[in-house]
Amino acid sequence: MAPDHSSTLDALISQVQTAPDEGTASEISNQLWEYWADAPDETAQEILNRGMRKRAAWDLLGAREDFDALISYCPDYAEGYNQRAFVNFLRQDYEVALPDLERAIELSPRHIGALSGRALSLVGLGREAEAQDALAAALELNPWLPERSLYKPPEPIPQTGDDI
Predict the structure, then answer these.
(1) Among 1, 54, 158, 159, which one is most buried in terms of CB atoms within 10 A?
(2) Helical (H) or strand (E) element with 115
(3) Phi then psi dihedrals of residue 96, to 5 deg
(4) Rounded CA Rg of the chain
(5) How far does the chain reach from its first CA to its final CA, in angstroms?
(6) What is the Cα–Cα distance from 119 to 125, expressed in whole angstroms?
(7) How many other C-beta atoms lie within 10 A of the C-beta of residue 2?
(8) What is the pLDDT of residues 127-157, one digit of tens each?
(9) For the structural domain made of 35-150, what CATH number should be given?
(10) pLDDT at position 161, please?
(11) Is 148 exposed, middle or buried, given 0-12, 13-18 or 19+ CB atoms closer than 10 A?
(12) Domain positions in the chain
């Protein structure tokens, strides 16, 4: 089981929501990632770190193998699913990324990275309406996300007839 950082994460999410500028929001977002990437134990942390190093070096197959191992070892740790989804996203295998993102969000409903990753995967699949809904949910938690430029607010419903 991953360490419970929920109160700290809630405080950081509140801070990013009211951040005065993009630079401040970016610093807060980095702090959020530190907590999401805090694995349940030393073995899980090593597997996560190894997979992230491989991903950073574009060894995507090696990274995916590590994240598969992490998920097998810690099936209730959201970041394992999120990282495997990210590898599949980088491989442009959006359909494979989605179930992992759904599981990460199920385990950690306020995981902004998984929420925005879900939106971007839906964009990649051409599922624009769903992507906009997913992006709106992520932007509610962090209005400074780099993906905010992709958000298109819903069109207002035109009024017809006379008001009663």
Answers:
(1) 54
(2) helix 112-124
(3) -75, -30
(4) 17
(5) 56
(6) 10
(7) 20
(8) 999 999 999 999 999 999 999 999 988 777 7
(9) 1.25.40.10
(10) 63
(11) middle
(12) 35-150
